[in-house]
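Hi U.,

Before I forget, here's the chain from the pilot set. I'm dumping it here mostly so it's searchable later in email.
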Amino acid sequence: MIYSIDVEITAPVYYTEVTDRVADAMTALFPAGEPAYEHGELRATVHDLDRFSEQLHRQEILDTARGIFFDNRRGGSFSFRLKKGAALHGLVNFAVEDPGEL
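Structure:
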């Protein structure tokens, strides 16, 4: 069976941030993405979540991730928010209560 996935990644770039560092945070977890800057944010599309999945396993946060994914389901899709600082270091840190960054 062949599975296909389309992942849209967006990250606001605030005036206090360096655009390249925000792009590095995106590609640390989603390396196939090629961030493009437009209208105050970076956007990228990827078709695999291998690195992201590896990190969820490495950090042993699969149950947390699954809960967040199910809580944010809408039809055949779901969304979640991540912290940029953690992502810059290749770590997954979900933004649960305050606005996310990725």
